[in-house]
Amino acid sequence: MRTAFIKELQAQARLHHDIFLVVGDLGFSVVEDFATEFPDRFLNAGIAEQNMTGVAAGLAAEGYHVFVYSIANFPTFRCLEQIRNDVAYHHLPVTVVSVGAGMAYGSLGYSHHAVQDIGIMRMLPEMTILSPADPGEARACTRYLAEHPCPSYLRIGKAGEPELHQATEGVPGLVEVVHGGADVAIVATGSILKNALEAVAILEKDDIRPSVFSMSLLHPVTSDLVAPLHTFGTIFALEEHLATGGLASILRDSLPISTTVHSLSLPDNLLGIVGSQKTLLSRAGLDGISIAERVAKLLRNAPHSSSKPV
Amino acid sequence: MNVNDTEKYAAAIRSEAVKMVAAAKASHIGGALSMADILAVLYGGVLKVDSARPQWPERDRLILSKGHCCTSLYAALALRGFFDVAELSTYGRDDSRLMSHISHKVPGVEFSTGSLGHGLPFGCGRALAARRKGETWRTFVILGDGEMDEGSNWEALLFAAQHKLDNLMAIIDRNGIQSLGTTQEVMNLEPLAEKIRAFGWEAREIDGHDHASIREATSSFPSPKGKPVCIIARTVKGKGVSYMENQLLWHYRSPDKEQLGQALEEINRQDASR
């Protein structure tokens, strides 16, 4: 996904001469082409994220649209106050790009797991938050940001994510990836959408056919954005993020109280375990099989539920 | 007023700042007074700014990193004609533009601060933008000495030297007192000039109340050496009001009616005696 991002950014930089890329001494074998083509609009700010974000704000105050690129929590948590005060409060066009969403850095450990970032960024009213699910969505999100410079956060995966759907016209936003029944939906954000699609294939054998949505715009969330979800009585929010503050919270905050939102999120007790992203998601009950089991069980046990598999 | 008479301008800045803090029962007058002479010299002729066009693209940019000392900058801007001096009386009141930490919503103010250690990185970004665009305006950042405890300032010092930002000047208001004690007691900075030189800057120490010295130090800029410039301005916290000078208490306290009268009288007398 990072390759999709950087290639699209490079293409957009040819069209938008205000685009400026700042990296925090990360991006080996990713950012070199951009740096070569646009040496006047590229900067390695070193391993100093507070200064990097302040510099980005200063560049943005002079008319640049600055993309700040680094790994996981480094461009968000380490310099949160610079994002809050310098970027967001001043409404400056700085896009913070975090590579390695969720547990993409697997065994590199807790320092490299971005599992609270959506919640933290969402607390800043001015920030637009985009969370693409696949390379196609990453390109669409990057293109959107290039055309709409604003204080923003782009949460992308790492490398090798498959293309999951072609319906990127509604991205960033909410797009229906699988058209299933009208009672139950799985709403996913980020590359974990893939696991939702695996779960759907399994559930189909039990004649459970949830609709699946990819939600790439996480802030601001308007009632119009989530209107397509109003028809569903039960929604499963699937995210590679802790339950607090993430997608489940967003959906509960924005959907009618009559909608039941189940959280398929990372549990707090998983933090600190060594494992690949795949292993960690499996332990979290967020691989395709586990998701299918949890969805089926919750639907069976749901009080007042008509399902009755849908 | 004629801001070119910088001594009179500084006295007027001090008077307005003291009145604002007294009326609002606000804090931070000590650090506002210690940098009043620096502001008077900068806005009295050194800075290329136009009060009729606060966003004039070719203006010099001044960033106040010690945003809690905003009263003297608001006063300097109003007296320079950026907005009506009468508005200063609204400082800190409900719905005023004049927030008690410097606000970019006020004409002539480039950047809101309040949390320390933000001004210099932002100034680096602006100076870098000027460099990349081939523009000749300059960036000035005024910092407190207490805020040199912040790691972000030292990140920015490294950065500015690395990128040879000779269009960037940092002015440290070296009044020697921070929130809970002297800078020596809390977090010793010395030898400050040597440290900053070791980071790759040109550093000079001056008397931060001597207008000729301030003018000379801030006018010979950009530096011919391809280095960012740091002026360490030795100042007195509370300068100009005898009972405030070098007193930690006046980081916090607001003058009562009698103290205000004495402060204004002292400031005017010093001005008249020049």
Describe this structure in words.
The complex is a heterodimer of chains A (310) and B (274). By secondary structure, chain A is an alpha/beta fold. Chain A is 34% helix and 20% strand. Chain A is built from eleven helices and twelve strands. Chain A has a seven-stranded mixed β-sheet, sandwiched between helices. In chain A, strands 7-9-8-11-12 form a five-stranded mixed β-sheet, sandwiched between helices. Residues 305-310 of chain A have low confidence and may be disordered. The two termini of chain A are 34 Å apart. Helices cover 40% and strands 12% of the residues of chain B. A five-stranded parallel β-sheet of chain B has the order 1-2-3-7-6, with helices on both faces. A two-stranded antiparallel ribbon of chain B has the order 4-5.
Characteristics:
heterodimer; A: 310 residues; alpha/beta; 11 helices; 34% helix; disordered C terminus; B: 274 residues; two-stranded antiparallel ribbon
How far apart are the termini of chain A?
A: 34 Å
Tell me about the largest β-sheet of chain B. 5 strands, parallel
Tally the helices of chain A: 11
Low-confidence stretches of chain A: 305-310
In brief, what are we looking at here?
The complex is a heterodimer of chains A (310) and B (274). Chain A is an alpha/beta fold. Chain A has eleven helices and twelve strands.
List the helices and strands and how they pair.
The complex is a heterodimer of chains A (310) and B (274).
Chain A: H1 2-15, E1 19-23, H2 32-37, E2 42-44, H3 49-61, E3 65-71, H4 80-88, E4 94-99, H5 117-122, E5 128-130, H6 135-147, E6 152-156, E7 174-178, E8 184-188, H7 193-203, E9 211-215, E10 217-219, H8 223-226, E11 234-242, H9 247-254, E12 260-266, H10 277-283, H11 288-301
Parallel strand pairs in A: 1-2, 1-3, 3-4, 4-6, 5-6, 8-9, 8-11, 11-12
Antiparallel strand pairs in A: 5-10, 7-9
Helix pairs in contact in A: 1-6, 3-4, 7-11
Chain B: H1 6-24, H2 29-34, H3 36-46, E1 61-64, H4 70-79, H5 119-133, E2 139-144, H6 151-162, E3 168-174, E4 177-178, E5 181-182, H7 183-186, H8 192-198, E6 202-207, H9 211-219, E7 229-234, H10 257-272
Parallel strand pairs in B: 1-2, 2-3, 3-7, 6-7
Antiparallel strand pairs in B: 4-5
